[in-house]
Request: fold
Amino acid sequence: MRHMALTAIAAVLAGTAAFAGGADDDTLILNDEIEMVTKTAAPDHLSDAMDEIISGWHFRSDETQQLQTDDFENQGMIFADYGAEAWDTVEGSEDKSCASCHGDAAESMVGVAATYPKWNDGAEEVRTLQMQVNDCRTTRMGAEPWKYDSGDAINMEAFVTSHSRGMPVNVAIDGPAEATWLDGKDIYYTRYGQLELACASCHEQNYGNYIRADHLSQGQINGFPTYRLKNAKLNGVHSRFKGCIRDTRAHTFSPGSPEFVALELYVKSRGNGLSVEGPSVRN
Amino acid sequence: MRLTAITAALSLTAGAALAEGVAPDDVSYSDYGEVTVSLSGQPGDATRGREIFANKSQGNCVSCHAVTELADVPFHGEVGPILDGVGSYRTAEELRGIVANAKMTFEGTVMPAFYKTSGFIRPGDGYTGKAAPDDLAPILSAQEIEDVVAFLMTLQDS
Reply:
């Protein structure tokens, strides 16, 4: 039933004409409770490039937007529920689950996703949320690491991220994280592939414009993981990056690569101030 | 037998292209980005050019440019200017240069170069995400560029 309704919406969307242009002025209120910040002043480090940062939610159709306003309609929450089960599941040689160390995620995980990727002193590296989860799995649980952006990893990321919804993205870009952040910035402005397009070509110079049937957003990642109607599953940040670079007829980087970790930190920092929305719904 | 015939035909086309056409690295652009000679040595076919312009797996020009004459093709993009009447205010030489490598006319433009095979950063093998082969082909062949230019020349102010 629910699936049929979604298919019908997708069909209507495909039929609507392009040329709507720009971001809309709707307001995103989650579960009639939390009002999300979906547009706000650009962080200082971005002020020479743009004045306002805008969530990808504003570039989607009303029907797609609606699905994200209610946890019972948001298909991404089903996957977050699988993550919740894994949170309590004992795995590995140490007989531990995530809950053994972190207790109730609704308390211990509040605000965590808003600050990732983040510098880790002990490991002397910038870590994404998935890298941190895998470190817990291998060193504390004695369990196998999850493959980057695999279903298990994304479900857990969605579950953890859901506890930060409505809180402002706030990743640190100075101090020891700065070198990685600068690497990510380089990648963002590099024109890859035979089409010679950078992230900035589409998401900084052309957001609001249609490219064929696609309404270009700022390519923000405050909404990740995203449930996409197109492939009916949750999608990770690195998989999205990979798809976008592939579309420039380029040799892509791999999910989990140092390049994508750096790019994730940089792109996330472009959204500093927007509310965390993950898991969000996109087309 | 059959295979030999195909190979023979292939080397014939390659030979012909070398004899009369201009390879991507050898195209000569004027200071304003114009290209004066036909890249294939042949005239373009506007009907084929129209298809290449609209076809997703070929030029896919329509993903960035709207054209009123292409009303039968869905979803025209907005990244580049509307091209209605472009054949009236641009010469064939200018258009050939723009389609072959728009960066020679518009510095830093987001418009891709369709007749270029070197100087890329991490070029891929089409849309596979894998590394490009050593003998990377241009996105459009010399004749396809000529066809697209012929189509653009049909876009006259009414």
Notes: Confidence is low (pLDDT under 50) at residues 1-19 of chain A. Chain A touches chain B at residues 18-19, 21, 190-197, 201-202, 205-206, 209-213, 216, 242, 245-252 (CB under 8 Å).
